[in-house]
Prior knowledge:
The chain is an alpha/beta fold and about 300 residues long.
Amino acid sequence: MKSLIDIMELSTAEIDELIETALDIIANPEKYSEKCKGKKLASLFFEPSTRTRLSFEAAMYELGGNVIGFSEANSSSAAKGESVADTARTVSCYADIIAMRHPKEGAPYVASLKASIPVINAGDGGHNHPTQTLADLLTIRKEKGRFDNLTIGVCGDLKFGRTVHSLIGAMSRYSGVRFVLISPEELKVPEYIKTEILDPKGIEYKESASLEAVMPELDILYMTRVQRERFFNEADYIRLKDTYILTAEKLSGAKDDLCIMHPLPRVNEISVNVDDDPRACYFKQVLYGKYMRMALILKLLEEAAK
Ligand code: CP
């Protein structure tokens, strides 16, 4: 594997290997503190980010490496019209690995075709977010102890929510997994998620407009933000943005060992009165993301050195 653009490029065995590395980093951080000495991560963020950018940067520093890059398109030559392909070729002269976020779907893939160093997709438009999924998978492993036989509710903006698309792909490879897709009509998952992932694999799923109605059956509840930046029409965003607000009261019918996840940032979709519930796992997800990104950087740099 030269780059990581889509979570489905990783086999379940490779995901297990990354999880084992992340767990070993958590247990023995000093063992890894110089693994990337002399290496540079180029952090190329053409779209806003807090968690993904800072966790990639923290990951590289904790591996003993360095970071170069930019956090907005306007401070790069993209503002003068430079293509993603030329940016990737240029940055390959300065760094050892690239983490790229871009509002255009497929931009990190184009970069990976032109770069001579590994490229990691740090989120491309409404398409994919594979390293968020790595964070999600470590969270599920730590909280539930397994990937199979889980009922996973994904709730909110299933149309534009790239984290949901990557998570459904990754979890659909485990046995006994069923999905409950909770969204308003306008924000249902794209048809390709059903025709290319769920239906061919015979994955059980159902769609619901009501979170309360399905709450008792869920092992995992994955809340998402309505993606304002992907709407063409502000009025539609305003109408839909508060469709689902998870509150402590709405959890009254939930399982005692429900795992509540959210890729963050949240706006209103999880009330702060849920944060102290032991079932709230979204800030653990943030921390696990850093360790999985450390494991991924190590794996890609090792493979590039072969
Ligand atoms: N989860 C996530 O991608 O967060 P950021 O947009 O802050 O990176």
